[in-house]
Design brief:
446 residues; Serine Threonine Protein Phosphatase 5, Tetratricopeptide repeat; 0% strand
């Protein structure tokens, strides 16, 4: 498979990293006063949805075709075309704006995002990007209009289907190509409406803002130090996605060396240290992250997990889990971790009681047991399909029910096992315990 075929073979909506990035960027946008960068991101966001929701009365055949054109390969073609239209419009309508004020930073954004998506050097993606722009520029220089641009873009998009990014071997099924072409034409017609709206918004933006404000006050100003640090951080995250732990760790170290207080890089490097079985180093990074941002729940959660799973310091783990919950009460991970910790404390105490023949203590419902149940229940409230919480809560109820023959606990355990199995077939190992508890329930009611 050639380099282009390989690059464009990851063309599915499920695998689209660009969709995720665009969604994250959209969340950062100031919708009350968007700049040109925000408008462009908004347009790409519309593009990745186009064909999925935007075509009225879309029949089933067209809907099935659209699923083949919702991945990163198609989005790359759309992004190149949109950038060309933006750059071309600015050159004609806002000649006083230098390229590095608006168009250039967006072009760099496209190259950076897709280089991370395809796990390639930026120079390769930049070459592809430049080649695409040159094609459209040649059409523009020849006096061609939107119809010719769309025809070129349609041909480019057709080549992104599956792994057939090879002009020497285009799809052979004429009826399939015709249906695909119909879908693409309809999508581009709709997308053209979005582009027209973008140009109006940019015109209004330029009318409201002076050249000085654009160059000094907007997000598109090129800050080399910040961009470089963010580039290294994103590169590290891409390496994490590839499970290249060592190189990812080096990338985050580079970010931290340049910016010692980079919270996210500290947390990510700490997680890598845990993966590499270096809990002491991880603890140092997480502690530093907490010093940098005392209100960041993520570092407290992971430090609690480090104390809990690796260093076996239960008191410190409990304190960090609880602080993470206080800072982010809607995050189920800390509840689940603390629930497991309480559960382990109960197991240890029960074992000690058995060894000491203290049956009264062994049978009692301790505060830690109730705390574990409460935390697992909170996880289920926040995430009703979290099968692990049902499993752990069911096991806790079952363990205690076998000791004190509590009918309520038996019934709750059976119900939790049933729910866990229905959510995940891999929990089928619980069937045997469920049957045993049903027998125990019958015995207790006799």
């Amino acid at each position: 498979m050639g380099i282009f075929s390989w690059m464009f073979s990851k063309n599915t909506e499920r695998n689209s990293q660009v969709r995720k990035w665009v969604a994250q960027e959209i969340e950062k946008v100031d919708t009350t006063n968007p700049d040109v960068y925000a408008m462009f991101v908004g347009l790409i966001h519309s593009a990745v949805q186009c064909g999925k929701y935007s075509i009225e009365e879309q029949d089933e055949k067209i809907s099935q075709v659209s699923k083949q054109y919702l991945g990163d390969a198609t989005i790359f073609e759309i992004a190149c075309y949109t950038y060309f239209r933006l750059e071309n419009w600015l050159a004609k309508n806002q000649p006083q704006l230098k390229p590095d004020q608006i168009a250039l930073p967006i072009g760099k954004w496209i190259v950076e995002k897709f280089s991370l998506t395809f796990y390639l050097e930026e120079e390769w993606v930049n070459k592809l990007f430049t080649e695409q722009l040159d094609r459209y520029k040649r059409l523009a220089d020849a006096g061609k209009g939107v119809e010719e641009f769309h025809l070129e873009l349609e041909q480019r998009i057709l080549m992104t289907k599956g792994d057939k990014f090879d002009k020497k071997n285009p799809p052979q099924d004429a009826s399939s190509v015709a249906l695909d072409s119909q879908y693409i034409k309809r999508s581009l017609a709709k997308y053209e409406e979005y582009i027209a709206a973008l140009m109006v918004d940019i015109q209004n933006y330029c009318n409201r803002n002076t050249k000085r404000q654009v160059s000094q006050g907007q997000r598109l100003e090129v800050n080399q130090d910040v961009n470089l640090g963010q580039k290294d951080y994103l590169y590290g995250m891409a390496l994490v996605a590839q499970q290249d732990w060592i190189r990812a760790c080096k990338a985050f170290t580079k970010v931290i060396d340049a910016t010692p207080g980079h919270y996210d890089a500290l947390v990510q490097r700490a997680l890598l240290y845990l993966t590499l079985h270096q809990p002491v180093d991880a603890l140092q990074d997480l502690t530093k992250a907490i010093e940098v941002n005392p209100s960041g729940a993520v570092a407290y959660f992971h430090r609690g997990k480090c104390y809990h799973r690796y260093l076996r310091q239960k008191d410190k783990a409990l304190a960090d889990y609880s602080e993470a919950i206080r800072l982010a009460p809607g995050d189920m991970a800390a509840y689940f971790g603390r629930g497991e910790l309480y559960d382990e404390i109960v197991l240890y105490n029960e074992k000690q009681a058995l060894e000491q023949n203290d049956h009264a203590f062994h049978n009692q419902i301790s505060e830690e047991f109730l705390a574990a149940i409460n935390d697992y229940s909170q996880v289920i409230t926040l995430a009703p399909e979290h099968d692990g919480a049902y499993v752990n809560r069911g096991l806790a109820y079952a363990r205690k029910a076998r000791i004190n023959k509590n009918v309520d606990f038996i019934e709750k355990s059976i119900a939790d096992f049933e729910r866990a199995i229905s959510l995940n077939w891999e929990n089928g190992y619980l069937y045997k315990q469920q049957d045993e508890l049903k027998e125990l329930l019958i015995a207790c009611r006799m």
